[in-house]
Amino acid sequence: MEVASVADQKEAGMIFRGWGWLKAFPGKIISKVVEFARKTKKLGQDDPRRIIHSLKVGLAITLVSMFYYFEPLYDGFGVSAMWAVLTVVVVFEFSVGATLSKGFNRGLATFLAGTLGFGAHHLAILSGEKAEPILLGLFVFLLAAMMTFVRFFPRMKAKYDYGVLVFILTFCLISVSGYRDDEVLEMAHKRVSTILLGGFAALLVCIVICPVWAGNDLHNLVANNIEQLASFLEGFGPEYFNTSEDVESNNTLLEGYKSVLHSKQTEESLANFARWEPCHGQFRFGHPWKHYLKIGSLTRKCAYRIEALHGYLNTKNQTSQEIRSKIQDESIKVSSESVKALKELAMAIETMITPSAATLHITKSKIAAKNLKLMLNADLCKETDLLEVIPAVTMASLLVDVVSCSEKIAESVHELASLAKFKSVKPEVAARKPSLQKMQSYSSVNVSQSHHVITVE
Amino acid sequence: MEVASVADQKEAGMIFRGWGWLKAFPGKIISKVVEFARKTKKLGQDDPRRIIHSLKVGLAITLVSMFYYFEPLYDGFGVSAMWAVLTVVVVFEFSVGATLSKGFNRGLATFLAGTLGFGAHHLAILSGEKAEPILLGLFVFLLAAMMTFVRFFPRMKAKYDYGVLVFILTFCLISVSGYRDDEVLEMAHKRVSTILLGGFAALLVCIVICPVWAGNDLHNLVANNIEQLASFLEGFGPEYFNTSEDVESNNTLLEGYKSVLHSKQTEESLANFARWEPCHGQFRFGHPWKHYLKIGSLTRKCAYRIEALHGYLNTKNQTSQEIRSKIQDESIKVSSESVKALKELAMAIETMITPSAATLHITKSKIAAKNLKLMLNADLCKETDLLEVIPAVTMASLLVDVVSCSEKIAESVHELASLAKFKSVKPEVAARKPSLQKMQSYSSVNVSQSHHVITVE
């Protein structure tokens, strides 16, 4: 009896849970939909260029589809016209550089593979009917295997991965399908010209309507990453010495640098795309995009130090307020001068004006660092409990390390200033220029490769 | 006269240089070819699976091309058969997980978009001849714009980016091209079935012949990254205290951790692919792949500390040999115990045997760290010149930090051990098992997303 009642209870429990789940179902769906709408809105607000990009893609595809649709044009290209639609869908990327790179890859690879495929097909036909399939199969196998291996070369992978893929694809389509209708040459010609047409349409829409420049994004990203380091240092002093009042805003300052730690791949792909772009805005032809990677790598090195420093925020309670207050002034001086230097460097990159005061701030920061060290030497070692002092000493040392990292960033930004021929304007004059203010306001960086949304200011 | 002679000299110089360039040209080409051959050999030697993968791709494409080539089969599918070739080229990836993920994305997206495209086409026809092109254009525009925006969602981008692309593509091809021949349904059916065929062929070759499992790669990568941290700590002591003899091998030990710093994206994409894979080898269905990301993130945190510690190798000369020798024994004890713990953790992941001694080593390392702190307290603070001591104190603190990071890694590996049901074998027994030795030798990790080649041991 008892067993039965337990079973009954279990069943009743299951029914009850099932009913509860069913009742909660509409609510769950509604909350999911609301969540989705909220995320969609946020994505659009974070970077309105995403909405524009989506509309641009819709426009380009519709344009090319209509081209396919209307009779007189259709007669010229036939079913091959779908290659144009396909090309637009595949080639249209977020930034002009990425679109150019993909379009170029696709165009050149199709042309080369078309030529080679025609040659292979011709050779196979010459060899007689029996040898033909064997020869064709051999060609396809060798080329596909070799080209697949070529994709493993790091340099090829970074720049021409898509091109190699299209090369294999077109070669197979042309050489093998050629067997069918003996109109290989016409087919190759059609494929090349429709792809050119699709690529051209994609490029046109991409460049003419609100273009997104990968170079501009890289430029802003690098400047913004330096700014993030400055933000951390700005928030660190008040947090460590308990002088901060607004905890929440301080936390935002302190966490921003984390996106810098993982920015390597994004920077590299943006630099890759930027090289494809023609001169635009402030950027002349041959702008030293590669040098941004150097600055980026130094910024990351500094961010690693800051990550270690961040760990010392939690150890602050191991050191008494008294000891901390002894090094407070000099520590805050060190960080605030570094903040000024880093902020000026970030601003210098953004506005493309040679930084004038950064070196001075770095020097001041280095002097403060020296004083901090002397103070550690003079005051702290008289303490009886050194265990309390050790975390403070380490914190101070890491802070001093950050200064030397900032110095390297400053050097590298100065190099960029001379390579990219930054303007030399006195800071007072610069602040007054309205156009520069405008430039700064346009600094929301979106990068299609990364999922972080980074907004300057 | 002089002007003329200067011009003559210039011209002569140019000719001379041009001639020199021409003479050097064949040599340059030869050296390029040699360089290329050397790189190719190295790529193949670093990971022979690359060569096998290339041959597999060649085989799959040839198989499907031949399918297209032979008459009786051709009659069934017609020109659409080229979609099968296209699918193989596009879907075939290095690992089984990536191929499955792409194949599934392509298959499902084609099916859904085919259905929707047919519906849109039907709706447009019902609306009358005049409204048809307008309606079709509107459908294409809306769908392309919406789907392009969906690609910005981080989660969609990580898992279904390719699927969304294929969805847009198929929808446009079916709905617009349908206008042409009124055989939309047949076309949609053909496209779906040829794509299924191509995807099936690609999967078959990918899984049957020497499969590469993304899960296995992730597993080895995470273990190897922990091993790299251990290697650094192993080399750090001798380098800092000048007791190392073999400088070159020490440098390799010290630089290995750098690849860990940038491993985030690689780990994430491998974990993404691993989830698609069926159970294989040691990995059961529902293996906790997500947990590897947690271990990976803790490993990276430790690597950031190590990067800071690495910076202190250069400051060693600021501290006299005498002071350094005072903390030498304890520092080396701290790092050597951490090395033992980390190596056991790495080995535990690789062999899937619950680590037994790691906790003990961590405890020993923590005791040594405490002693080190006491020693700093007792001995160093009597020094008159504290400026010399500060770098040593910082170094020691960072070393202690690394220990606490290692502790977290150890906890996380223990969690993995219980989640993934690692075997519990005593270490002595484990060392004797021949199968485990074999497993270790197969630990060259290749990741198609990253350009680093990581080899364990």
UniProtKB/TrEMBL annotation, chains A, B:
Membrane topology term reads:
Multi-pass membrane protein
Q: Where in the cell is it found?
A: Membrane
Q: Which residues cross the membrane?
A: 51-70, 76-96, 108-128, 134-153, 160-180, 192-214
Keywords from UniProt, A to Z, are:
Ion channel, Ion transport, Membrane, Transmembrane, Transmembrane helix, Transport
The protein's predominant localisation is: membrane
Member of which family?
Belongs to the aromatic acid exporter (TC 2.A.85) family.
- Output this protein's name: Aluminum-activated malate transporter 2-like
- Species whose genome carries this gene: Xanthoceras sorbifolium
